[in-house]
């Protein structure tokens, strides 16, 4: 039942999203959009080497997209590129392949586990993870380009 996924904690997370807005000079920006529900998440990211040093996002999403964005914003600074790629894959498997939720600082994502039974909600739940990994890829691609003389 939909009440399982829109529980009190999800609504609290959705109503208290940290780091809202945009960064003035991000190293990369990425947007993820769900055609199914119209939810959109735009992220701005700064990194030093493989570590996220700053983050902001503009979240126009349903409560599930807002809740996952809230969890991301609470823990992304200080996380590494590899950790965030692995996180996205763990969440994807949790929703689509009955995988377990992440542990440690990302354990709150377990609150989104009931979404597994609602395929139409998977895309909005994954938006923030997809956008962050996209932005990381952009930053890494720029770092590999030879410096312009």
TrEMBL record:
Pfam families: NifU_N (PF01592). It comes from the Bacteria. One of its GO terms (molecular function) is iron-sulfur cluster binding. Residues 6-123 form the NIF system FeS cluster assembly NifU N-terminal domain. Signal peptide: none annotated. InterPro entries: NIF_FeS_clus_asmbl_NifU_N (IPR002871). SUPFAM superfamilies: SufE/NifU. GO terms for biological process: iron-sulfur cluster assembly. This is Nitrogen fixation protein NifU. It comes from Bradyrhizobium jicamae.
């Amino acid at each position: 039942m939909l009440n399982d996924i829109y529980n009190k904690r999800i609504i609290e997370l959705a109503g208290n999203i940290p780091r809202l807005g945009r960064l003035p000079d991000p190293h990369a920006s990425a947007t993820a959009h769900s055609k199914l529900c119209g939810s959109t998440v735009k992220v701005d990211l700064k990194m030093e080497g493989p570590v996220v040093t700053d983050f902001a996002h503009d979240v126009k999403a349903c409560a599930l997209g807002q809740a996952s964005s809230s969890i991301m914003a609470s823990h992304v600074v200080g996380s590494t590129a590899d950790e965030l790629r692995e996180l996205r894959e763990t969440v994807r498997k949790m929703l689509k392949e009955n995988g377990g939720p992440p542990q440690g600082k990302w354990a709150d994502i377990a609150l989104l586990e009931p979404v597994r039974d609602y395929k139409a909600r998977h895309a909005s739940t994954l938006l923030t993870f997809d956008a962050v990994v996209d932005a990381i890829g952009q930053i890494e691609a720029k770092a590999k380009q030879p410096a312009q003389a």
